[in-house]
Design goal:
The chain is of the alpha+beta class. The chain has 2 domains: about 120 residues, Roll (2,3-Dihydroxybiphenyl 1,2-Dioxygenase, domain 1); about 140 residues, Roll (2,3-Dihydroxybiphenyl 1,2-Dioxygenase, domain 1), CATH 3.10.180. About 20% of the residues lie in helices and about 40% in strands. Strands 2-3-4-1-5-8-7-6 form an 8-stranded mixed β-sheet. The chain has an 8-stranded mixed β-sheet with strand order 10-11-12-9-13-16-15-14, covered by helices on one side. It is globular, with a radius of gyration of 18 Å.
Length: about 290
């Protein structure tokens, strides 16, 4: 179900990258994913915000680093909410921080920038005209978001309190965030969803998955807790090679993992992301490969 027209509360709905040189990032991602990008900011605006599209549908965005934000390139995950203000209060009550208080983005929507108790930043999105990604789960669009963290118990308590998330245990390699009832919502437009997931080897309850839980290993002491973004691709090996040709870096070479072949990449400014090809034959692989 690649096309969407809005989301339900508690579901990741949008991704953008904050860049020191948005125009250069536009060249990189446009070349890598075949995106068509349009700057939607007024000409006299101090910042740029390029909406990326596939077949005319919004998939992600490339923007300037907001004033007051850390001067580093990064990918940002947005989670759909009914009220940015109410969610900001929940974040505080659950032990997180509100880094940027709720504010309006013209007529597009209202958002806030928050961090969880371990410091992983994320955004909440109260939609108005901008309904989030219109195309997902196809080559060049977002297929997954994941939380990389160390304290699983603290994360479960926090995200459960803020978004109502529960978890699906997938063994030692991690697990998945689930939103009870999300599968029912998806089946309204795709009645065969549960059967399709079962046929692909998905465990019971996978239809409610909204994001991944990725433990940070002891071998990565300098890696901060963070949210990552995964893009679907037709050829992980080819995209890794293309990223290098465009000035990016391959941080983890293409490898087989459960259900996918994936690679971890960095754009020329250092923002990291994952490119992943769905490989049903890899369903039975363990997370260690």
């Amino acid at each position: 179900m690649p096309e969407r027209d809005g989301y339900i509360p508690g579901v990741p709905c949008w991704a953008d990258t904050s860049q020191p040189d948005p125009e250069s990032a536009v060249d990189f991602y446009g070349g890598l994913f075949g995106w068509e990008l349009e700057d939607v900011m007024p000409p006299d605006s101090p910042g740029r915000y390029f909406i990326a599209r596939i077949r005319g549908g919004n998939v992600a965005a490339v923007g300037s680093i907001p004033e007051g934000a850390p001067p580093q390139a990064m990918w940002n995950t947005y989670i759909w909410v009914d009220s940015a203000d109410e969610t900001a209060s929940k974040v505080r009550d659950a032990g997180g921080q509100v880094v940027m208080e709720p504010f309006d983005i013209m007529s597009a929507g209202r958002m806030a920038v928050c961090t969880d108790p371990e410091g992983a930043p994320f955004c909440v999105w109260q939609a108005r005209e901008n309904k989030g990604a219109g195309i997902v789960n196809e080559a060049g669009s977002v297929v997954f978001n994941g939380l990389n963290m160390r304290d699983a118990d603290a994360a479960k308590a926090f995200y459960g309190a803020v978004f109502g998330w529960t978890t699906l245990d997938l063994g030692p390699g991690g697990g998945m965030w689930t939103l009870p009832g999300y599968g029912d919502h998806l089946e309204e437009s795709n009645p065969d969803l549960r059967k399709q997931m079962a046929d692909a080897g998905g465990p019971p309850g996978f239809e409610d998955v909204v994001a991944a839980i990725n433990p940070i290993g002891d071998d990565q002491p300098d890696t901060p807790a963070h949210w990552n973004v995964t893009f679907a691709v037709d050829d992980a090996d080819g995209v890794a090679q293309k990223a290098t040709e465009l000035g990016g870096k391959v941080l983890s070479p293409p490898m087989d993992a459960p259900w996918v072949r994936m690679t971890v990449l960095a754009d020329p400014a250092g923002a990291t992301f994952i490119a992943s090809k769905f490989v049903p034959e890899n369903a039975q692989l363990t997370s260690s490969g």
